Amino acid sequence: MTTLFKNIKELIQVRTEVTAFVSGKDMNKLPTIKNAFLVVEDGLIANFGNMENCPKQPFSKVIDASGKMMLPSWCDSHTHLVYAGNREREFVDKIKGLSYQDIANKGGGILNSAKTLQETSENDLYIQSKARLEEVMALGTGAIEIKSGYGLTVASELKMLRVIKRLKENYPISIKATFLGAHVVPSEYRNNKEDYIKLLIEDLMPKIAKDQLADFVDVFCETGYFSVEDTERILQAGKDYGLVPKIHVNQFNSIGGIQAGVKYNALSVDHLEEMKDEDIESLKSTKTMPVALPGCSFFLGIPYTPARKMIDAGLPLALATDYNPGSSPSGNMNFVVSSACIKMKLTPEEAINAATINGAYAMGMQNEVGSIAKGKQANLILTKPINSYSFIPYSFGANQIEKVYLKGKEIK
Ligand code: NIG
Ligand code: FE
Fold it and tell me: Domain total for the chain?
């Protein structure tokens, strides 16, 4: 099966040299080809270039993309898309003045979602989660990371991870799974965090490794959640079981978690709303990708990640949604790209790089997705007729997507 897209007004994020991620000034460079063609063969990008060199052989399908732009699908490297129920009641509490931490201290927050999830059957959890996955696929996301962390018991953490596995088996979107048992200390362990950490390391991790239920291990490293010392222990144990570290860090306080992430070769450090100069410094010349989650800042009214300062200091940056019921109940990458431009002062080029090639790296998927390159998955966004790619972030709250293709197939 071969498909030719012809007369593409502009083909965006074209990479002919192997590029794992872009950082600093290079983030402002977004290579494109105007008046382009692209050939898909067996779900992969087989060829692309200027229309002058468009191949003439017969194709199974030819799509005329006149007036439209094409870019690689969004890569959303941080979500909690598998969850049960919602938290609209806390939303109203928040409107009335309670902070995220006030709500958590009242027994709401993550513990509230964990209680609902524990009472939800595996099949019901799957049905609720697949609706969200279908929603984000239609919004242009072609690769996604999904975390556990609302189970907080052996049975429910495994239930979440099995649901992620089932989504992976049933949908064309590429999915990576993260074990986030260290999301919050459950109430039963409030005075005995040590036993909970032992349960994660000694009971859950061997089961997860045996059934290959996760790719990554994550910890919410934050005052009142897990300390830097706890984080280091959990990351090391995860590594021993073949899980690559990631961290939720510097959301409310800068307590040294970024340095722990770098020390344990974390693939990414995520949130980063509170950044000291030494935090920025310690990420320089590392392989750890900083990830900003502007949807969370928008929803909670907390500071935005100082992305401008970080990129100007030479760092790379990825953007993700953090799709979850408490701090970012939206999986819309189009909105994330807009808010990065509007609130964090990224240029459209920087934001698109952060949401594609750098997002792919933050999931260890830089060889499969995130750019238009030969041999990569044909995960493609075809826009409506638009004048320039800057219109994508400019038209915030809308999306300019006409069609989405995953592994070469149109998503209905
Ligand atoms: O990434 N900060 C920790 N975890 C999630 C929120 C979880 C929740 O509130 O349900 C986050 O923001
Ligand atoms: Fe998160």
Answer: 2
Sequence-ordered list of residues with C-beta below 8 angstroms from that of 251, at least 6 positions apart, any chain: 222, 271, 272, 273, 274, 296, 302
Residue 246, SS3?
strand
Q: Is residue 366 part of a domain?
A: no
Ligand 1 pocket, mutate which of 111, 226, 327 (most atoms under 8 A from CB) = 327
Question: What is the percent of the chain with per-residue pLDDT over 70, rounded to a whole number?
Answer: 100
> In a mutational test of the pocket of ligand 1, which residue from 79, 80, 323 has the highest number of ligand atoms less than 8 Å from its CB?
80
Q: Answer left, alpha or beta for residue 149, where phi above 0 means left and psi between -120 and 50 means alpha.
A: left
Domain for residue 84, yes or no? yes
Query: Is residue 108 located within the same domain as residue 148?
Result: yes
Same domain? 189 vs 209: yes
Same domain, 354 and 383: no
Residues contacting 405, CB < 8 A, separation 6+: 40, 378, 379, 380, 382, 411
- Find out whether 284 and 305 touch, Cβ atoms under 8 Å: no
Which ligand approaches the C-alpha of residue 86 most closely?
Answer: 1
Is residue 331 within 8 A of residue 136, CB to CB? The reply is yes
- Give the domain CATH number at 123: 3.20.20.140
pTM of the entire predicted model? 0.98
- 58, 93: one domain: no
Determine the Cα–Cα distance for residues 297 and 149; give it in Å rounded to an integer: 20
Residue 311 and residue 277 share a domain: yes
> What single DSSP character describes residue 105?
H
Question: What residue ranges line ligand 1, CB within 6 angstroms?
Answer: 109-110, 113, 220, 248, 251, 296, 322, 324-327
For residues 162 and 279, state if they share a domain: yes
Query: Looking at the DSSP assignment, which residues form a beta bridge with residue 245?
Result: 217
270-322 confidence digits (pLDDT tens): 999 999 999 999 999 999 999 999 999 999 999 999 999 999 999 999 999 99
Q: Which parts of the chain sit beneath pLDDT 50?
A: none
